[in-house]
Description:
The protein contains 16 helices and 13 strands.
Amino acid sequence: MKIVTVVGARPQFVKAAPVSRALASRGATEVLIHTGQHYDPQLSDVFFQQLALRAPDHHLGIGSGSHGAQTGRMLEAIEAILLRDRPDCLLVYGDTNSTLAGALAAAKLAVPVAHVEAGLRSFNRSMPEEINRVLTDHVADLFFCPTEAAVANLRAEGITRGVHQVGDVMYDSALHYLSLAEAGPNPLDALGLASCGYYLATLHRAGNTDDAGRLRVLISLLASLDAPVVFPVHPRTAKVMAGQGISAATGALRPIPPASYLDMLLLERHARAILTDSGGVQKEAYFFGVPCITLRAETEWVETVEAGWNTLADADATRFRAAIARLAIWRGADAPFGDSAGAPARRDLYGTGHAAEAIADILLERQRT
């Protein structure tokens, strides 16, 4: 079986790594396309190295640009590869422009589309990621859902065929790579910080960065916290902040360059609490039993909120401070993936760590039938 996989952004490298291993172990041929949507070395090259992903067969080098221009260039380039390679299936991950471009190119050529992280919904159509999710699901043939909620969302949209609840491939990666991270240098040592002695913050979504007033509020709230706030600054966020004259080196904030995946796992694992607008980081906080405060009004990972481990604070100072007061005391220094004393109960919301194997088996079974 020949599968073309399209990736382009840091979270997709993390998701693709366990699936690529599972496909290789089963003898499938995988053609890997890197669109170049994330091109900063700390968001791309270092991830391929640390995750032991083989070099992409095609690097499109698309880079940044408006959503339409970026997606259009990807669509044209991916179509040319599909016409030449004629795969049995195209595999896409998540909700980026790379995801949508790959799905559209394949669907128009009648190449079956398999979507990992299918069915996620924030129900906020102002988010580019939401548009990408919905459109990808409505041209896909196979839907690999991480949660029960994702399956229910697809059902509500009339999608029931080809739907599989397999668990979350990011959980597979977290389980696999944490021990590797712990065997290497600890980023806390370089920062002079102790476990549970800091917060971790990330900001990159357009809804937070493109509104200068909102961004200033969020930076001010982060800077006001009672312990150091480690802040790996996304290149896009850094560019916006520089253009608006917003300093990241203020108050409690400790800006650092984008963290590698292994460093990020350790920063998450040992944080007192995590403050983020990233969907993936919300989940990783739950994996590690670290309280999370989401700097958005909604989330596609609703089960983390329902479980009591994630609070939607948006950019509201009152909600933000109440969440800090409630959540920061939960964090314990217990073993990875264990419950912290005094925190809500935690369940296996995201499977058992074998989602990638299930995906590979379903893909190969479909080919046999």
